[in-house]
Amino acid sequence: MIPLRDTLTSRTLPVVNTTLIVINLLVFLQTLSQPAHFYHIYGLVPARYTTPAAWEYFGVTGQMTALVSFMFLHGGWLHLFGNMLSLYIFGDNVEDRLGHVRYLLFYLGGGVVSGLSHMLLNPGSTVPTIGASGAVAAVMGAYFLLYPRAKVLTLVPLFFIPLFFEIPAFIFLGIWFLMQFFNATGGSASAIAWWAHIGGFLCGMAFVLVTGARKAPTKPHRFQAVRSRSPRLQIIHVRVDQGGFNLTGRLAITPKEARKGAVKRINLFRFGKGRLIKITVPPGVEPGKRLRLKGLGLPHPNGSRGDLFLTIAMD
């Protein structure tokens, strides 16, 4: 299962989440030319923390630095892309709920806890552990409790046929967690730090439960940047209107986009099937107004097609 995006739109700009993605990308580009021992210095090597000689060699500063730096290193483009895609999908809404500063501390703390989880169960390992997977798992664990009823647009490749499904977040993330657990307890050797993923996920859940973050704030936290644009790509669930050939749905835009107009790509979802189209929202549109897109409805027996009506809603 490959997640593509969720159906929730955050009220505020994901400043920290976007910055984290950019930093991970820049760090990865910088490490492409680094020698192999670079990862033994800035990666998380459990044996370094259980060997007195290693503490003398690296010093307290070096040991503490590696507990954070390892989560910004990646072993390849696929490793980086997978982590950043999950962070992009789930991180913006968690940041929206926690606020910028608290989200940053939560992300870093989740990464450290994930690293400690790996060290606890692999104390003698001399293999460097790298990657943002543990920190991202903490974000996913928080999302699991904060937005269980959100839906995740998921690509399921069946041989050479791409199938798209909208899966409730609690099912998608629950399956993901079970896969990590079964891989961790399967007994087979692996270069993947499964226990780091598990520790990060549980840390994210614990943080939400302890801090009471499930209670949604009535307005954005202080100093949060309010979003001026809705996502360019939106998933819209449509239903059949009266008459049986027209389709109706809801398009969410911001007040600024309503004043100035906007161009969106929307994925029309009906009966588990998606259809991607491009639409233009004219300037000066008002909430409740219905945009009519001719010929995008269901086929009529006489050869014509019904229309698609999108009701404008303000986010």
Automatic annotation (TrEMBL):
Residues 250-312 form the Chaperone DnaJ C-terminal domain. Its main location: membrane. It holds the Pfam family DnaJ_C. InterPro entries: DnaJ_C, HSP40/DnaJ_pept-bd, Peptidase_S54_rhomboid_dom, Rhomboid-like_sf, Rhomboid_protease_S54. The chain crosses the membrane at residues 12-32, 66-91, 103-121, 127-146, 158-179, 191-213. Residues 62-212 form the Peptidase S54 rhomboid domain. Belongs to the peptidase S54 family. This is Chaperone dnaj c-terminal.
